[in-house]
Amino acid sequence: MTAKRSLSILDQLLIQTDRALRAVAAQSPHSERPSPAAQADSPELDAADRQHVAGLMRINHTGEVCAQALYQGQALTARLANVRDEMQQAMIEEEDHLAWCQQRLDELDSRPSMLNPLFYSASFGVGAIAGIAGDKWSLGFVAETEKQVCRHLENHLQRLPKQDHKSRAILEQMNEDEARHADHAVTAGGAELPAPIRLAMALMSKVMTKTTYHI
After folding, report:
1. Cα 160 to chain center, whole Å?
2. CATH code at 206?
3. Rounded to the nearest 10 degrees, what angle do helices 47-77 and 135-159 cross at?
């Protein structure tokens, strides 16, 4: 049986660069799972509702771009192999979310945020720093991030037009996946982050949501 070859630092950097380009490119990314919206009824939305839903889905798309960056930064600097594997598996599901949000934006004749490269760069740096701080803090950062994302998705589910079953199906599946990521991170040994860090994360999230709804 052939042993699995470990990746060099250069290999990892090339892989992360490729992922970064695909995450921020305004093209439909690949998803392993079909979109939950595929079987949902196509909603009748007026111009105002279409614009509102597009704004919400643009926020969620940028959130997934940030998630890709966070996981990539953490996977690059994680010390334990099982933690790296955990980050890689979560990253695959986050790629599904990214693709689903992009597909929904396309259906709404809208586009991703022009600020995605900026948010990606910032999130990658934060993820890398979290990984360097130690695996328990990296996992704790994942857990807190996913908890905040779940609260954010629940808020969007309340703000969607009732007839928009497509967007609702996407956000409900994303919420389920994110909650599972948070649980896995805690089970794997994630430490609870100090209150000032949790507050700073919430403030950064608020900046992202306020800007990407429009831009």
Report:
1. 19
2. 1.20.1260.10
3. 170
- Give 154-213 pLDDT, tens digit per residue: 999 999 999 999 999 999 999 999 898 888 888 878 888 888 888 888 888 888 888 999
* Rounded Cα distance, 185 and 18, in Å: 25
- CA separation for the pair 132, 76 (Å, rounded): 9
In a domain, 30, yes or no: no
d(CA 95, CA 43): 25
| Residues ≥6 apart with Cβ < 8 Å to 168 | 40, 157, 160
d(CA 130, CA 73): 8
Assigned domain for 1 exists: no
The boundaries of the domain holding residue 119 are 46-212
SS3 (DSSP) at 167: helix
